[in-house]
TrEMBL record:
This is N-acetylneuraminate lyase. The lineage of its organism: Eukaryota, Metazoa, Chordata, Craniata, Vertebrata. Belongs to the DapA family. NanA subfamily. GO terms for cellular component: cytoplasm. Its main location: cytoplasm. It comes from Xyrichtys novacula. GO terms for molecular function: N-acetylneuraminate lyase activity. It is an enzyme of class 4 (lyase). The keyword Protease does not apply. SUPFAM superfamilies: Aldolase (SSF51569). The keyword Cytoplasm applies. Keywords: Carbohydrate metabolism, Cytoplasm, Lyase, Schiff base.
Length: 308
């Protein structure tokens, strides 16, 4: 991680996959090459680890600590930000991971809502977040809003109201939902030091138009160089070019959905495009057959050439 303690998190963030051996065990040896690929080939210098794409809930607390520590160790001096997702169904486990993230000098922590016994209202959600944040009070803290996974779809704008009084380290939201009204209200009611990062890759341009300051997504692992061009085009008010890149991403995902585009397909697509041996997903997610991934790769190359 670079010396950017006071640097606001903006731009593109790759939600990383977790490298596994063919037998499904954690493979730390691939994290260094993975970081090199992101920085050198994709131009991505921020990562969100142990999240949804990283299959966090399929790993033990000990495995997640091991992974977080290796990501931070290998990213030091190379990446600008390493955000560690510490969400668990257990408050105590989340607190343990938050403390550990502070110990290994991650740049920030994030947490999704617990989704087995769910918070029934904003007050309950805020209390849970406050308890986790208090375990690492010096760590910038992000709420990870992903209702399609958690089925916790409380208005984020209501959560943000005076949240800095309960969580002084609160730094922003990873907003992975298609509710443009709630997104807009979050951005409109954010403090200047907060960052709202949009998390729906295929709708990124709409999030930018609403005022999102950056994006976190799994497709940015292998599409980062192209999506950086989308961000640059948007900044220059070249909407035609930004739309072209967004449409191409949408066409790719439309095609991939024919093969049931899920984590297994997405991870295998990363393997095929990057050449990194990241292994299979962990059950219950099923590994994508290589021939299906190859078909998607061909579609990828028809949409995204080296010069596009």
């Amino acid at each position: 991680m670079a010396a950017v303690a006071d640097k606001k998190l903006t731009g593109l963030v790759a939600a990383t996959f977790t490298p596994l051996t063919p037998q499904g065990e954690v493979n730390l040896s691939q994290i260094g090459p993975y970081i090199d690929y992101l920085t050198q080939k994709q131009g991505v210098k921020n990562i969100f680890v142990n999240g949804t794409a990283g299959e966090s809930m399929s790993f033990t607390v000990a495995e997640r600590k091991m992974l977080a520590e290796e990501w931070c160790k290998k990213a030091k001096g190379i990446m600008d930000h390493v955000i560690v997702h510490v969400g668990c169904l257990s408050l105590k486990d989340s607190q343990e991971l938050a403390r550990h993230a502070a110990e290994i000098k991650a740049d920030a922590i994030a947490i999704m809502a617990p989704f087995f016994l769910r918070p029934k209202n904003v007050a309950a959600l805020r209390k849970f977040l406050q308890e986790v944040a208090s375990a690492a009070p010096s760590m910038p803290f992000y709420y990870y809003h992903i209702p399609r996974i958690t089925n916790v779809n409380l208005p984020v704008v209501d959560l943000l109201e005076d949240i800095e009084n309960d969580i002084p380290s609160f730094s922003g939201v990873k907003f992975s939902a298609s509710d443009a009204m709630d997104l807009g209200l979050c951005i409109n009611n954010s403090k200047p030091q907060w960052t709202v990062l949009f998390g729906v890759d295929e709708e990124l341009l709409s999030g930018l138009a609403m005022g999102a300051q950056g994006a976190i997504g799994s497709t940015y692992n292998y599409l980062g160089c192209h999506i950086n061009k989308l961000l640059a085009a948007f900044e220059k008010n070249n909407l035609a070019e930004a739309r072209r890149i967004q449409y191409n991403l949408q066409e790719l995902l439309r095609y991939a959905k024919k093969y049931g585009f899920d984590l297994g397909v997405n991870k295998q697509l990363m393997v095929e495009l990057s050449g990194l041996p990241l292994g299979p997903p962990r059950p219950p997610v099923i590994q994508c057959p290589p021939e299906n991934a190859q078909s998607i790769v061909q579609k990828f190359h028809s949409l995204f050439s080296e010069s596009s």
